[in-house]
């Protein structure tokens, strides 16, 4: 089990990671989702031992790794640019870590064959790196990382350079391999689709902090903060005003430009306070509101519809511009 406790890191007096704490349990794949430049790679480098936190601890099975050099941590890293050795063939690329470990040639042969099978590259052993497509190269990188049976695998935007359909296939395969081998993994990306596909647990990194940590479904359904809702593009964020003082229990009435709603809210608010509310379209229940259609955008299997005061909704059938439509919504308080 990997555990980070209050990890901090600054560059040139600018805090990049302010206070990072999380755990990766046995067999679990967690995904750290954050914008470009949010410090994802820096965090992985610290876990790998290539860089040091300013303060805080990184532990594996309750042992502090501060004095454990990278090669003794037994962690594997897979990068976007594959990091294969172009002068070696596929066999030698996958065997690389095993050869460093003084294992018999017979065992190395068996292990490499096994790993190439795991990543669906049977028969590729004698090929050159330059003869492989990007997706195939990334499979080799995965086979190489798996070959040495690391205690933890880390993926730094590994599919960033690949096109969309290939990405999705590889993601599904990678997820299957990780679950089969039960190697705990940290996958970092700025790509939300990727994150939600691969993860058992999603962690949102924003402004140097983990602002949300939960199962993909839970994080999507309840982003719980304005930053998380914005990051994910969940629903619409609107302004509201608290009608009556709220003690942080039960529901409270919020007045908005779309009407007044009874909102379940775990925060303490005084009467008249301004709040941000998340409006999600709902198929099951909630309040009904009327909206006027302003514009319609085609979005794969449905239509994204811009309505009154910039509220976006989705519909299966395209409405007419100017039409008044009724939609059911759920309103949540983001604080
Ligand atoms: P991400 O992987 O999320 O895109 P990074 O961890 O690569 O983010 O880097 C975040 C920011 O930290 C970068 O924009 C850069 O300004 C800064 N940074 C990273 N490494 C260094 C370094 N070695 N020296 C100075 N600044 C750095
Ligand atoms: Mg990065």
Can you offer a commentary on this structure?
This protein is 25% helix and 38% strand. The mean pLDDT is 94. With 335 residues, the protein is an alpha+beta fold. α2 (90-99) packs across α3 and α3 crosses α4 (134-147). A hairpin with a 2-residue loop joins β1 (2-11) and β2 (14-24). Strands 14-13-11-16-20-17-18-19 form an eight-stranded antiparallel β-sheet. A six-stranded mixed β-sheet has the order 6-7-8-3-9-10, sandwiched between helices. The protein has a four-stranded antiparallel β-sheet with strand order 2-1-4-5, with helices on one face. It folds into two domains: 2-228, P-loop containing nucleotide triphosphate hydrolases (Rossmann fold), CATH 3.40.50.300; 236-333, no CATH class. The two termini are 33 Å apart. The site of adenosine-5'-diphosphate has 10 residues, from α1.
């Amino acid at each position: 089990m990997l555990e980070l406790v209050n990890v901090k890191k600054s560059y040139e007096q600018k805090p990049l990671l302010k206070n990072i704490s999380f755990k990766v349990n046995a067999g679990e794949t967690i995904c750290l989702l954050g914008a470009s430049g949010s410090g994802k790679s820096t965090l992985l480098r610290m876990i790998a031992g290539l860089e040091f936190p300013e303060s805080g601890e990184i532990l594996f099975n309750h042992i502090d790794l501060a004095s454990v050099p990278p090669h003794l941590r037994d962690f594997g890293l897979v990068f976007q640019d594959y990091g294969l050795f172009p002068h070696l063939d596929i066999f030698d690329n996958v065997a690389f870590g095993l050869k460093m470990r003084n294992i018999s040639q017979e065992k190395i042969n068996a292990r490499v064959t096994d790993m190439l099978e795991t990543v669906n590259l049977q028969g590729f052993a004698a090929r050159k790196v330059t003869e492989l497509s990007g997706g195939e190269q990334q499979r080799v990188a995965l086979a190489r990382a798996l070959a040495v049976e690391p205690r933890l695998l880390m993926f730094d935007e590994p599919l960033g350079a690949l096109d969309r359909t290939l990405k999705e296939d590889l993601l599904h395969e990678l997820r299957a391999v990780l679950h089969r081998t039960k190697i705990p993994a940290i996958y970092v990306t700025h790509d939300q689709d990727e994150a939600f596909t691969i993860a058992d647990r999603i962690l949102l990194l924003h402004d140097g902090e983990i602002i949300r940590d939960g199962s993909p479904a839970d994080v999507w359904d309840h982003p719980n903060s304005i930053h998380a809702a914005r990051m994910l593009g969940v629903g619409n964020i609107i302004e509201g005003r608290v009608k009556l003082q709220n003690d942080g229990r039960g529901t409270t009435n919020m007045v908005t430009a779309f009407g007044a709603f009874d909102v379940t809210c775990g925060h303490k608010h005084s009467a008249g306070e301004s709040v941000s509310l998340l409006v999600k379209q709902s198929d099951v229940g909630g309040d009904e509101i009327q909206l006027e259609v302003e514009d319609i955008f085609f979005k794969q299997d449905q239509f994204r519809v811009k309505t009154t005061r910039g509220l976006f909704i989705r519909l299966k059938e395209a409405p007419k511009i100017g039409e008044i439509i009724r939609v059911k919504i759920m309103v949540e308080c983001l604080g």
